[in-house]
Amino acid sequence: MSEHDATRRTFRNELWRSLPSGVIDTLTATFGMLIAVRVFHLGDVAKSVFLSATSGGMVTSLFVVPLLLRAKSTIARTAAKVQLLGGACMALSAAFPREPVLYIAGLSAGLFCFSMQIPLLTQIYRINYPEAARGRLYAIAGITRAAAAMCFGFFGGKLLGWNLETYSWLLWGFALSGFVSGFWTYRLPATPWEAPVNGSTSLWSALRWIRDDRDFRTLLISWMMMGVGNLAAACLFVEYLANPSHGINLPEFDVAWITGVVPVLSRIIFSYPWGIVYDRFNLFTVRSVLNLFFAAGILCFYLGHGAFWWTLGMAMWGMANAGGNVTWALWVTKLAPKHAVAEYMSVHTFLTGMRGLIAPSLGFAMVKVMSFDTFAIVCGLSILSASGFLTVRARNSDPESHDRLRSGTKPERL
After folding, report:
1. What are the residue ranges of helices labelled H in 281-371?
2. Does the reported pTM lie above 0.85?
3. I need a surface site. Which of 133, 164, 236, 313 has the fewest CB within 10 A?
4. Can you tell me whether residue 98 is helix, strand or coil?
């Protein structure tokens, strides 16, 4: 298959896959927590387990690449099989909708599977998407994904507002989306694994890139500083508006609209512009600017008391998330050699998962000892400090690092 055909086929399949992926996004962003609070009245431990499921899969992703090397399988089909397993786990929750343990266990296991295979998809993007257009192609699929999430979020919010007992239909929707996503991933070009003959298959081998690559190490540190604050704040968006103990207690549709539809609509509008920015500007600069918007959105949401400020905060956070999705998924393609993209990404997702495991419990613990206003300020300062760290590093970077992180570079030097 020619490079042009591989690009066209990958892009087409990713557009179709983005539809079920958007539906699953509403599970993590809104409906999973909303059902946990309003239907099952689950405690903080159970809600933290659910919120940590995606992060747990990211932690495990560090070991996916070495196992793939040992299995000598194709990247797309391995990713597809993991997604199909995730759909089966979600179907377990849908089959037993009255059991809170199976609700949490099935959905958490499904999200665990979907996040575990992320580095494999990044490797496919690196191989099949041309570098000069990679951000834009990913952003277009991201717009489709966000549109699907917005439509399903609106539909699901109306459905729950009409009758809360209809949540079981949403669970079947998530399970079906898992299977459809796996189908379209399976039909991606069967990219063989092209690793060096002497490449290590140790389960921890990918961590060597932290030691060997200073730019990679710098961005990982910054992302950790930013990610802890952002994830802790994001985990409590629904909790803040839906739980009566916090004094707001909005109706189901209003919660779904503000936390599920508004930020997704913002993602739709700003995804493509951020894709262009990613393709054309230095990665340090893009990441620093995004952090400012993330912090501003969180501060507006928690410090502004009223529907206008909650909506504005979610809109700003969604705008930042549009660019954040592009840079989070693709930034390693600017640094890693072609054969090592999945390894770089597995380290990135591993550390994202580690902070994601901490963030939900940290967020719930923080609001037990401080007000939501103070909580928002602490999270905002954490995010802003990450931008400061990147700015200092960018000013002291050598010409080689500057050229490597700008648009149009070909990172094959390692």
Report:
1. 283-303, 307-330, 341-369
2. no
3. 164
4. coil
